[in-house]
Amino acid sequence: HPQKNHDFLIDVFAEIKKEKxxxxxxxxGTGPLxxxxxxxxxxxxxxxxxxxxxxxxDMNRIYQAMDVFVFPSHREGFxxxxxxxxxxxxxxxxxxxxxxxxxxxxxxxxxYINLSAEGICRGMELMLDADLRKRLGENGSKRVLEWxxxxxxxxxxxxxxxxxxx
Length: 166
Description:
Blueprint: H1 6-19, E1 25-27, H2 34-43, E2 50-52, H3 59-65, E3 69-71, H4 80-87, E4 92-94, E5 110-112, H5 117-126, H6 130-148, H7 150-165
Parallel strand pairs: 1-2, 3-4, 4-5
């Protein structure tokens, strides 16, 4: 979907690839723009380093393969995939879009990025620091367990519904 900003991500990745020839990009999911995005990857000569994985049931394995989770979305209801990546101890580069801002704590579990080539490249430069990646990932996992565990969330959601129904 256009709001996920894949087109832009491919453009930025082409620039990153010039500086980091060993960089790989994993795209998960499908949608109406998949063929267009695949064509752009071919056009930019990135077919050997951009991997389209489709819809998956083994996302834990996919997250484990990542060094950094980048989420350049324009708009979200809530960045659930950001929480999933955080739970797997991955550092996050996240847009400040509606729905995304609640998924990280800046400088603690991830970094916000401006949706510009410069913004993402600046974020990726930060992520070259292995200690920073490790700290952000560990903090993200702890936060997910503390704030989003179903044993914590379900009672809160139930209380909210009860309050609304009164």
